[in-house]
C-alpha cells in the first residue's frame, strides 16, 4: 500500500457543497439524533468528495467538520484512514488497483506496470487530466482478481491486455463498461455451469441485482442511485450476456440433428416465416445470440409468445437440440419471453 499524502495547497481556501447535494446531506443527518450527528461523517465526506472533483481538499473537510460540529482533526482522521477518500487531486478516471495477495497472484503486478507506463507515477494526474491511479488493499472482490476500481465501479478478471485496453479507451474518451472481463457469471467458474445443472433442483434464475442503494435518499437522482444497483447490474448483465451469447452460439454451431420426440420431449409449435422485419427480436432474451436466433427461426420460432408458451417437454427438446444441458431453464428463457410478450402488448 502506498503512502497517501494530503495536498494542502491544491484545494484553495474555500469549499461549498453543490446546492443539489443539500437534500442528500439532510437525508443523512436525519438518520441520527442531533447530538450524534457526527455519525454522518463518512457519508458527508463522500458527498464532499463528489462535489470536489473526486478528492477531499482541506476546506472540504473543514466544511464537513463544521456541519457536524465536530473537531476538524476527527474528520481528518477518518478521511486519512479510508482509501475511499482521496487526499490529492485525481484524474477524471481514478484507478484503484488492488495489490493484495490474491490479486497479486493473479497478475496485479502486471497491471501496476501498465499503470506506471500508461498513466505515470501513483497519485499523479496524467497530462491530459483524465487518469490517475493508486495501489490499495483488498477491495473485497478477490475471487475476481486481478481487479481494479475505477471511480465507483469494479473491473474484474483483468489481464494485462484487457486492462491496457481499458486504460487506452478511457484516455481516448471511449466509455468502458465495468464488470468481469472473462466468460463467467459473477464469481461462478469460467465457462458453463458444472454444478446445479439439474433444472429440477435449480431453475437457474439469477437475481436481477439491487434496484436501488439500501438506505439511499429517495430524492437522489436516478444516476446517483445506479452505481451499486441497477446500472451495475445492467452493465454486468450486458457483459455476461455477451459472453454467454458467444458460448451459446458456439454450442449451437456444433449441433446438427433434430432430437426424437418422446413423452418428455416435444418439438415446439412452429409458425410460418413472417414478413421481413416482423419477427420479434429474440436477442432480447438473455442468452440468445444471433446464431441462436437463426437456429430458432429455422425451426419456425420467431415470436416471444411462442417461447412463452413452451412447457417442460418443449424446453427439454430445445435443450437437447442445442446441447445446452439445462441452459434454457437456467437462463429462464420462458419467463423472459413471457415478460417480453407482455411488454409487447402494452
Ligand atoms: S485481494 Fe484483490 S480484491 Fe481482494
In words, what does this structure look like?
With 346 residues, the protein is an alpha/beta fold. Among the domains are: 19-81, Arc Repressor Mutant, subunit A (Orthogonal Bundle), CATH 1.10.10; 247-345, no CATH class. It has helices at residues 22-29, 41-51, 58-68, 72-81, 101-105, 108-118, 160-171, 222-225, 230-254, 290-298, 304-308, 312-322, 327-330, 333-345, and strands at 93-98, 131-136, 148-150, 153-156, 179-180. Strands 2-1-3-4-5 form a five-stranded mixed beta sheet. The protein is elongated and about 75 Å long. Bound molecules: FE2/S2 (inorganic) cluster. FE2/S2 (inorganic) cluster binds at residues 98, 100, 102-103, 138-142, 145, 147.
Amino acid at each position: 500500500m502506498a503512502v497517501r499524502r494530503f495536498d494542502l495547497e491544491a484545494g484553495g481556501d474555500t469549499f461549498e457543497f453543490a446546492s443539489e447535494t443539500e437534500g442528500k446531506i439532510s437525508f443523512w443527518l436525519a438518520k441520527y439524533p442531533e447530538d450524534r450527528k457526527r455519525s454522518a461523517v463518512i457519508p458527508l465526506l463522500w458527498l464532499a468528495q463528489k462535489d470536489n472533483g473526486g478528492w477531499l481538499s482541506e476546506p472540504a473537510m473543514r466544511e464537513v467538520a463544521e456541519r457536524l460540529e465536530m473537531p476538524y482533526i476527527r474528520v481528518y482522521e477518518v478521511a486519512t484512514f479510508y482509501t475511499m477518500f482521496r487526499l490529492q487531486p485525481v484524474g477524471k478516471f481514478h484507478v484503484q488497483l488492488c495489490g493484495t495477495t490474491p490479486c497479486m497472484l493473479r497478475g496485479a503486478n502486471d497491471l501496476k506496470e501498465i499503470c506506471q507506463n500508461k498513466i505515470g507515477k501513483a497519485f499523479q494526474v496524467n497530462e491530459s487530466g483524465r487518469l490517475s491511479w493508486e495501489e490499495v488493499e483488498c477491495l473485497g472482490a478477490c475471487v475476481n482478481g486481478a481487479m481494479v476500481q475505477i471511480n465507483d465501479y469494479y473491473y474484474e478478471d483483468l489481464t494485462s491486455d484487457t486492462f491496457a485496453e481499458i486504460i487506452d479507451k478511457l484516455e481516448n474518451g471511449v466509455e468502458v463498461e465495468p464488470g468481469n472481463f472473462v466468460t463467467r457469471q459473477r464469481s461462478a467458474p469460467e465457462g458453463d455451469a458444472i454444478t446445479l445443472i439439474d433444472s429440477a433442483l435449480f431453475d437457474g434464475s439469477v437475481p436481477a441485482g439491487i434496484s436501488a442503494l439500501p438506505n439511499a435518499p429517495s430524492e437522489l437522482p436516478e444516476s446517483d442511485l445506479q452505481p451499486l444497483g441497477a446500472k451495475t447490474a445492467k452493465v454486468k448483465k450486458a457483459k455476461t450476456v455477451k459472453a454467454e451469447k458467444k458460448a451459446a452460439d458456439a454450442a449451437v454451431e456444433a449441433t446438427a440433428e433434430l432430437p426424437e420426440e418422446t413423452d418428455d420431449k416435444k418439438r415446439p409449435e412452429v409458425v410460418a416465416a413472417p414478413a421481413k422485419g416482423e419477427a420479434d427480436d429474440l436477442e432480447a432474451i438473455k442468452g440468445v445470440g444471433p446464431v441462436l436466433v437463426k437456429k430458432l427461426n429455422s425451426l419456425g420460432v420467431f415470436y416471444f409468445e411462442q417461447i412463452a408458451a413452451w412447457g417442460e417437454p418443449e424446453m427439454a427438446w430445445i435443450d437437447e437440440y442445442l446441447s445446452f444441458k439445462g441452459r434454457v431453464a437456467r437462463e429462464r428463457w420462458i419467463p423472459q419471453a413471457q415478460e417480453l410478450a407482455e411488454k409487447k402488448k402494452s
